[in-house]
Amino acid sequence: MYVAEQYNIMLIFLVGYMGSGKSTIGKLLSEQLGVSHLESDAYIEHLESMTINEIFEQKGETYFRNLESAFIYALKPGKMVVSTGGGMPCFNDNISIMNEIGTTIYLEATPEILTHRLINSSDRPLLKNLNKGQLMEFIEKHMEERSEYYEK
Question: What is the reported pTM?
Fold first, then answer.
């Protein structure tokens, strides 16, 4: 019997800042539990036939954040690990909805670790054109703004 069945786990949402390991840990956790794994960003990219960068550039952040909310509402009951986008819990009261329909787990990492992981990232629309010093400052400020949502 899989652990998910034993404990009757339904939905597990992994939340945290970009680069915190949600995708990596989501895959490993879903394998351990014997359940499906779904990445919200990959799902949205497939749905829109565009990358997250293209959605931000062509349709804007508000449009993207609304897609994230629609993603949550479209989830079917079932046993699954969901790796969320870094901002998903922070908009449209998504964190409350995730907490209501599942279990959320906050993957926390320090700004130093996140900067190291994200410094060469070219597929993160919020990080475009930032050097290492700017990136660290941006992450620290962003994490301060977002931590209240992640900690819920």
Answer: 0.89
Q: How many angstroms separate the CA atoms of 98 and 11, rounded?
A: 9
The conformation of residue 17, written as its DSSP 8-state character, comes to S
Pairing of strands 11-15, 103-106: parallel
Residue 97: CB atoms within 10 A of its CB come to 16
- What is the Rg, in whole angstroms, of the alpha carbon atoms belonging to the chain? 15
CB contact at 8 A, 91 and 149: no
Tokens of 132: 């290492």
- Helix axes of 61-74 and 94-101: crossing angle, nearest 10 degrees: 10
What is the rounded distance in angstroms from the CA atom of residue 95 to the CA atom of residue 90?
7
Q: Please name the amino acid found at residue 135.
A: L
CA neighbor of 118 nearest in space, from 45, 8, 18: 18
Three state DSSP letters for 26-52: HHHHHHHHCCEEEEHHHHHHHHHCCCH
Residue-wise pLDDT for 84-137, tens only, equals 999 999 999 999 999 988 999 999 999 999 988 888 777 777 777 777 778 889
